[in-house]
């Protein structure tokens, strides 16, 4: 390990640091806590839900690296230093999300909940199955993960729509943007996939009003919701209400307002809700740590950092 390489603070909660520590410390000196109230010897911080205030103790900090695709866990720190923030962009993370979205879309399309119920009741019945081309999948969020998911769904034959805050073009996808584009986007969506970043503008966006604007006369007998973005994007009471009112047929939820999901939550036992424990695209240290180390090395050679966060936009 070169003595000239900058030191790294690894600060994380809700994940165990050992694998990250072992991989990062193979190339750089890594510490888990700053040395006192002002530690001038830390150049980089690698964080996940870091304790608020810990980064302000690093007067010579050059960059912050997020351990996950989202950065809202960093931006909520009121004492965040004014240094570049690097978000994760990795092929394996993108592939995990591509797989998850395709899996859940196919399950809703091929009536997985219906067949699971029929199996439980020992019912032998084949309901009508519409072709994929008649089903409109709408993706909210056309960043790296959203575009990858869209391409996977196009390859499966689905009609794909996309909505984003600002105008974007994705080949083969009918795109909408801004507040004016949201209602027409929802009105043609049978399966809604939420991959938005969490910002003040998107917090709680998946509410009853939004769900009530989804296409109601589509080939699946009602719309389905898939949220693999952030739990704070959704209002869970509104999702349950929409399911009970028939506004929503089914839901696949990987993220929740509070995690882990409360054992008493009615979502656990709802027959038309499929739950995974924030596992759609987990950060794998073996893939991500080398990418962070490569960026640090390149930065010290005078090269610019990549995949920087726009603080004003929140992602």
From TrEMBL:
Q: Name one Pfam family in it.
A: 2-Hacid_dh_C
**UniProt key word NAD:** yes
GO molecular-function term, one example from the UniProt record: oxidoreductase activity
> What UniProt keywords are attached to this protein's entry?
NAD, Oxidoreductase
Asked whether the keyword NAD is assigned, the reply is: yes
InterPro entries xrefs:
D-isomer_DH_NAD-bd, NAD(P)-bd_dom_sf
Span of domain D-isomer specific 2-hydroxyacid dehydrogenase NAD-binding: 105-280
As recorded in UniProt, coiled-coil segments are none
Name of this chain's protein? D-isomer specific 2-hydroxyacid dehydrogenase, NAD-binding protein
